[in-house]
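Example record

One chain of 436 residues, shown exactly as stored in the release files.
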Amino acid sequence: MPFNKLELHPSLHRGIRDLGFVRPTPIQIEAVPPGLAGRDVLACAMTGSGKTAAFLWPIMHQILAHPRRATRALIVTPTRELAAQILGDLQDLGKHTSITAAAIFGGVGMGPQETAFRRKVNVLIATPGRLLDHLQRDYARLDDVEYFVLDEADRMLDMGFLPDVKRIVRQLPRQRQTLFFSATMPEPIVALTRELLKSPVRIQLQRKAAPATGITQAVYPVPQELKRGLLIKLLERGDLKEALVFTRTKHRADRLCKSLVAAGIVAERIHGNRSQAQRTAALAGFKAGKFRVLVATDIAARGIDVEALGHVVNFDVPKVPDDYIHRVGRTARAEARGEAFTFVAPEEERELRAIERAVGQRLPRVKVPDFDYQARPQAKLEVPIADRIAAIRARKKEDRARARVNAERRAAGAGRAAAAPVPKRSRQGRRGRRSS
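Predicted structure tokens for this chain:
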């Protein structure tokens, strides 16, 4: 189906041609027409399917067809990176339009965001927490919102944002069009759709969640303590030209990134403990090719859109299959091709079996011929949490003991000072001071 079959505003078609899009993706074919018709849409769409354009095009078309100075669309998304990505996509798609938009998220100053509210930009793209911060001020009003998008709804659930989403919805006009997108549909999300949507057009709701067809998946069995060496080996061999590498924790991301840099590999990391400026710089550097490897926690699984990203590496096996699907969905986006490698230690086999059941296939096992699987174990990438807690308790115990000894010494010194006799001055000395 060619794009001219989608009855979009001519300015949007100009943007489509400039971006070099050849044909709409399946989710765009199914979601754009009912979106243009003003219907509510419930779409179960995987990451990398082109869903961002699927909800942006109908909204932008309506704003262009009936222009007025007001904030007419609100898009709520779970992470800062995803909000920034959607804003970038809107600016690319609306290159030949006068549509105004702003991203509202934490980690940066509220001043420019307040200005966006006061200017009544046409589209706000927001994370729940920061949006609620603004909504406590008198300048932040959502009375003119006609189009509401809830993106990555299942991730909202994972991050505990559903109560915040409901608070936001209560401040929206009752008469509005709602576009609801989620990669999976757990029961709390299904219940939320019943509250928000009116006779929605349902798209791919029954489709089983699975990675995109263009992703080549493989499993690399390896002891936990040799994972770092295996990753470096694959990078040195050239098997990975560039890679987005997912770790289980922020601490592991920091330590792994440090190890890669020590091995001469240009790498950066992105996770929740880094400032927004650091996260933005790391992502921009990776997109620009400045960093060969970006090490990330799952905060980035649904917020990184890198054109032609060739490889995703699960350094740690995700705890649940949905996280695996979202991680590997960072590659092979928009019908491109990519590879997803998962490093599996013996103690992670259970999680791997759950992933294989979810994707409906046994993933091929790969061994690297010239890698020493019997090598001497490297230093642990992460100290087990039980050991860390024990070390913290030991330090606190030492600190208490040291404080007790110091207190006893101070008390003993004070006692000696109090018991010491006061020396008497001689008569001659007293007479000498009086005469002087």
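Notes: The longest strand covers residues 215-221.
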